[in-house]
Amino acid sequence: MPEQLTSDLLNSIPLPGFERTLGELRLVKSVSLNDRGVCEVSLELPVPGYPHQEKLEQSIREKIASVDGAPDEIAITCSLNVKGPESGASVGLRVKNVVAVGSGKGGVGKSTVAASLAYGLSSMGAKVGLLDADVYGPSIPHMLGATGKPEVREHLNTDGSVIQRIHPVQHDGLAVMSIGFLVAEENAVIWRGPMLHKLLTQFISETEWGELDYLIVDMPPGTGDVALTLSQMMSLAGAIVVCTPQKVALLDAVKAIAMYQQVKIPILGMVENMTGDLFGKGGARATAAEKGIPFLGEISSDPAIRIQGDESRLGELFKQESAARTNLLELCSNVAMEIARQYLAKPQAPTLEILQ
Ligand SMILES: Nc1ncnc2c1ncn2[C@@H]1O[C@H](COP(=O)(O)OP(=O)(O)OP(=O)(O)O)[C@@H](O)[C@H]1O
Ligand SMILES: [Mg+2]
């Protein structure tokens, strides 16, 4: 094997979509020659559904081909290693990115977007949890068709003491937690502020979420209480603000953005939902541009989305090809890219410079 064929050769290649090189992000795991003379490259990608994979692989092939005596055949394998601020570290969670999905107005599709992000990111290979923080109107169990009860199990602490941990419901490969699993749907629950705070705290720090790349939080409409509790507990990867294209929804979305900014949760961007004939199109993109925040995509108004959600089988949207699936997966990929972009732009994000 030519001497230059090592990870170092590839470390200077820029990662498309980010202002970082493969070396800075330690994405090249190995470069070797197998016994059939094939150059094998093992790579880690920092986001699921990475949209520039082909372009990156092309740059790698060109770089290897530029080496004298390089083999003709190159095999690249990619695995996923999601990057993130380890949002839950301060409360003992092993979750890389906690992402809030909120809006100013009710009924614009927060729960649909939150659940779709969970399914979509999971179908792209990420480990995902879904927390229904809408304790007044929990809709996640119904939308997913998830049943069962979170179990309380005893765990042994490192110091030998026994603690009780709540285990989320596992559904379609997602870890799911909702007050809807504990209280019958038709029973309205009146939660006072401190109880709400305590319940959310339990759902986060006393729950055994396991190792997750993303914990998606379906936020209740309006109020800033839940956002405040979350922001006090951990450093979120950010919040996504969902709105529909009408003027009133956009005005409320602007208020929601201000609310997140006030509690110091970074804004990942805006999503326009139910784009189409009925409500119009493009309002959220324009508002995002005005506010100087990213626009993450639009979801068409699509009866398939409503029907699958209403009939407790939202996950089926991700099982076969459809316009809705393509639409939602593109949104997931945009969201994953934006999360990684914002994280990697922060000064504390890891680089290899110290080692080079
Ligand atoms: N893109 C879409 N196309 C068609 N129907 C949709 C779309 N997005 C959401 N819906 C439907 O709109 C209704 C409201 O959606 P959803 O429950 O997700 O909103 P929400 O913002 O979470 O509401 P709430 O404020 O009550 O929590 C549901 O019936 C859902 O199926
Ligand atoms: Mg909802």
The spatial strand order of the largest sheet comes to 8-9-5-10-4-11-12-13
How far apart, in Å, are the first and last alpha carbons? 23 Å
- Uncertain residue ranges: 352-356
Q: Note the total helix count.
A: 10
How would you characterize the overall build of this protein?
- This protein is an alpha/beta fold.
- The protein folds into two domains: 7-81, Fe-S cluster assembly (FSCA) (GMP Synthetase, Chain A, domain 3, 2-Layer Sandwich), CATH 3.30.300; 89-344, 3-Layer(aba) Sandwich (Rossmann fold).
- It is 32% helix and 23% strand.
- The strands form three sheets. The protein has an eight-stranded mixed β-sheet with strand order 8-9-5-10-4-11-12-13, sandwiched between helices. Strands 1-2-3 form a three-stranded mixed β-sheet.
- A hairpin with a 2-residue loop joins strand 8 (169-171) and strand 9 (174-178).
- Helix 3 crosses helix 10 (323-344) and helix 5 packs across helix 6.
- The longest helix is centred in the last third of the chain and has 22 residues, at 323-344.
- Magnesium ion is lined by residues 110-111, 134, 139, 218.
- Adenosine-5'-triphosphate is lined by residues 103, 106-112, 134, 137, 139, 221, 273-274, 299, 301-302, 305-306, 309-310.
